[in-house]
Design goal:
binds zinc ion; globular; alpha+beta; two-stranded antiparallel ribbon; 28% helix
């Protein structure tokens, strides 16, 4: 913690992932841009229970996508 994070950031802690979970893709993308640490992107939480609204994480895509097992477009579409 550096104490430089914006206090108004809207996120919760995603317990299964241990990551920050943003409420909307827009917020997540804004956070990714603010972090400015290379190519990061917003993606839906892979641990969202079926039927629940997905929270958004910032960072690298899940391993299945990185390995090419699931196409990025397909991954996002299935999570909408
Ligand atoms: Zn998560």
């Amino acid at each position: 913690m550096t104490g430089r994070e914006k206090p108004a950031a809207r996120y919760a802690l995603c317990r299964p992932c241990g990551k920050r979970a943003y409420l909307t893709r827009k917020v997540a993308r804004a956070a990714a841009r603010a972090a400015n640490r290379g190519p990061m992107q917003a993606y839906p939480c892979p641990n969202t229970p079926e039927g629940a609204q997905a929270m958004w994480h910032v960072g690298h895509m899940p391993q299945v996508v990185r390995q090419g097992l699931v196409g990025k477009d397909k991954w996002l579409k299935g999570r909408r």
